[in-house]
Amino acid sequence: MLYVLLPIACAAGxxxxxxxxxxxxxRTHLIAALAHLNMTTNDLRFEKDVAEPRFALARxxxxxxxxxxxxxxxDEILAAAGDKAxxxxxxxxxxxxxxxxxxxxxxxxxxxxxGPAWPASPDPRLVEALRxxxxxxxxxxxxxARAFGALRPEERAHAAASVLASSFAVEDYPARRAxxxxxxxxxxxxxxxxxxxxxxxxxxxxxxxxxxxxxxxVGALLDAGRAIAEAADALCREATALSAWPERPVTVPTPLxxxxxxxxxxxxxxxxxxxxxxxxxxxxxxxLAGTANGLQGRPLGVVVDLAGNDVYESERLLGxxxxxxxxxxxxxxxxxxxxxxxxxxxxxxxxxxGGLEDRAGDDIYRAHGFAQGAGTVGAGLLHDRxxxxxxxxxxxxxxxxxxxxAGLLIDRRGNDRYNAGGRLPDHERFxxxxxxxxxxxxxxxxxxxxxxxxALVDLAGNDTYQADVYGQGASYWYAxxxxxxxAGNDTYxxxxxxxxxxxxxxxxxxADGDGDDVYSGFALLQGDAHDYAVGMLFDHAGNDTYxxxxxxxxxxxxxxxxxxxDSAGNDAYLSRQTTSCQGIGRESPYREYGGLAMLLxxxxxxxxxxGAPDGARILRPDFGIIYDVEGPAQSRTK
Length: 638
Fold this sequence. Notes:
Among the domains are: about 25-85 and about 420-638, no CATH class; about 155-215, no CATH class. It is built from eleven helices and 44 strands. It has a 25-stranded mixed sheet that branches. It has a 13-stranded parallel sheet with strand order 3-5-8-11-13-15-18-23-27-31-35-39-42, with no helix packed on it. The radius of gyration is 24 Å and the shape is globular. It starts with about 25 loop residues before the first helix and ends in a 10-residue tail after the last strand.
């Protein structure tokens, strides 16, 4: 397994140091398998970085050049997720090469003197805690001003419309169009974007979007996210020690928005606010609670809820934990909670930073799209520390990243279910299928701009992952998507493009640490790469089953590198089209060289649909291999 899990405290949590996703023992077998092809690891470096998009991350370009940089990226993300005190903001800054400072308190402007007139409180410590939070909010507000200071209002509106109008197909649904207008995106900006989508030459419209993105200071944006996340955490710790609360909700107006303090009863919070602090009760958060929208002069929104089985539900464009040209953060310390968003929500940042941390309870997360750890020109972080959780999203979610974006979904414990799809038909390929674009998926703006990095990390539990087209550790156009599951008997099912797939100059990885797992789908899955891309699937222990129709289980198409490596267990590799599955690297008839595909099973008694026996060293067309080590599973070593 990737590492041994320890009990996780509600406030901090942690794990032992992690073993690498790609161990020295794995490397030894990879080198041996390459030798059967008269190759070395240097041959993995054949040309794949052949375009020049804007904003292509240096890390992504290195992975295309040296595919073994991809498991190293997974190690970096796992190390951050497994830390006792994870510093996700340092990780975001590193992934996005944004230069964010290690501590927003040092990097941000000094807070101006003065502040709101605080009312009398039954516990004076509450007022002091709110003062400290407000000072941090002032710093975050200054950082957001720095992040977007070079953008005119009409440019901000155009940037929002360019992503949201097409994502939610507003030309076909007037109610969705109205939802955008209601949140400050003018109808004229929406219509302009829809007209640009019809242009024969997409270049001029892309140039406009790129210019806006280029003048956004992502480093300052991440520092603002850090500032309010740390302020929310500090407020939670201080508020937990309080002994007296108001009998009914109290509101305090401030220049940055209302601060609302709830009661220990069941309260309903339905208005936009800088901060909502609630001590307990079965509360409801509706409308704009926990959201940030700089287009409407509300760049900050925070919720800190200490206890209770709560419901967060919004019919607006932005749901709890979503930020548009701003920073939003929701911290729920305890309870079985329900999060529902009609559109975006639950840790989503579009030209913004959106975060949600749920520390305990069996929770339900539902959203239409762009949710549950999603970031484009910004970042989204959903961190669930404990409980048996359900995640359901239509598209762009459960760890999604677009241009200059990073998306993380971290679930530490529990038997969880992840569903993605059912809302965005895939008319380009399959009218009867839906685009998922989720569960560790990242995408760029082909051919103009590279994408970001997305990772879904589940550290324990028997989990189920269900998607349709694009997902489960996949990416498209100068991006990197990862799904990292540390332990448990897991089930992965999807239709096409996933389970460790890189598509079109991109990199995708699925790594599973332990358990008897099942991987199933139709095509282009399970360590698959297509068109100058890198795709990998690592499974480190357990008796596993891999099932697909075609082009799967270590399959490289059109000058790509694909690797499926199973380290232990008695495994079965099933397929209908055995001529296109299991170590198949097709030579491109249009280019000067082919792809390289490898299926390595380095322990156990295994079954292959293509007829390969245990102990096989079978060369497959064209530049492919099945390399099998027969015998009992051996323990992995570093």
